[in-house]
Write a structure and sequence with these properties.
The protein has 249 residues and is of the alpha/beta class. 28% of the residues lie in helices and 27% in strands. The longest helix has 15 residues, at 37-51. The protein is globular. This is Electron transfer flavoprotein subunit beta.
């Protein structure tokens, strides 16, 4: 069984992003970039399924600029077997990404697609669902547990009311939540081995995908800083402040 894992290059989650002075976007100059954390969870799950003998090959795919080669190499160092880089401009919207991934799926013919549930840069949470719809495959989103038995896939997913268990045939699409696993770190020997693993490059134009933006961000602003708290000496003083300052009563 082949598993395909789409991954996205985002600003590292430890970096505090800065808005450009003209408000036209986020300043990415000299900013550390890394794999989207939810995608790291998807890679880890795919590698675990391979180590358990359930999967025979793990392929990672990333859509974006030349910098995506770095995160593909990181995924290969963690345990993926092969990488695919669809060379395109950064910032492509989720629908175009889903269409691009559909074209890759039709070439690779995987049995299982594992994605992060969302990217931390835009929090869209759309690509996995759109991709499943385009492929007409069953889907399990926000997965906290994944089990494969023969041709059946069992996904435990987190919902508002608790946990929901879904059983579906494969091929299928699964988006991964935080509690699915704890991603491993790449060891130095595996980092060296990853340099010899193949990465196939594809021009997005060759796939015939329309990447024209469907919306335009007018401006970006930094959220207002919250004011510090105030100590009150009595309940009456608290109520008075809530009436006159917070405007909640």
């Amino acid at each position: 069984m082949k598993i395909l894992v789409p991954i996205k290059r985002v600003v590292d989650h430890n970096v505090k992003v800065r808005v450009k002075s003209d408000g036209s976007g986020v300043d990415l100059d000299n900013v550390k970039m890394s794999i989207n954390p939810f995608d790291e969870i998807a890679i880890e799950e795919a590698v675990r399924l391979k180590e358990a003998g359930t999967a025979s090959e793990v392929v990672v795919v990333s859509v974006g600029s030349q910098g995506c080669q770095d995160i593909i190499r990181t995924a290969l160092a963690v345990g993926a077997d092969r990488g695919i880089h669809v060379l395109a401009e950064d910032g492509i919207e989720p629908l175009a990404i889903a269409k691009t991934l559909k074209a890759v799926v039709e070439q690779e013919l995987p049995k299982l697609l594992l994605l992060g549930k969302q990217a931390i840069d835009d929090d869209s949470n759309q690509t996995g669902q759109m991709l499943a719809a385009l492929l007409k495959w069953p889907q399990g989103t926000f997965a906290s547990e994944v089990r494969v038995e023969d041709e059946q896939l069992t996904v435990t997913r987190e919902v508002d009311a608790g946990l929901e268990v879904l059983t579906m045939p494969m091929p299928a699409v699964v988006t991964c939540d935080l509690r699915l696993n704890e991603p491993r770190y790449a060891s130095l020997p595996n980092i060296m081995k990853a340099k010899r693993k193949p990465i196939d490059c594809i021009e997005i134009d060759s796939l015939g995908i329309d990447t024209t933006p469907r919306f335009k961000a007018v401006t970006y602003t930094v959220p207002e800083q919250r004011k510090g708290g105030v100590m009150v000496s009595s309940v009456d003083e608290l109520i008075e402040k809530l009436k006159n300052e917070a405007k909640v009563l």
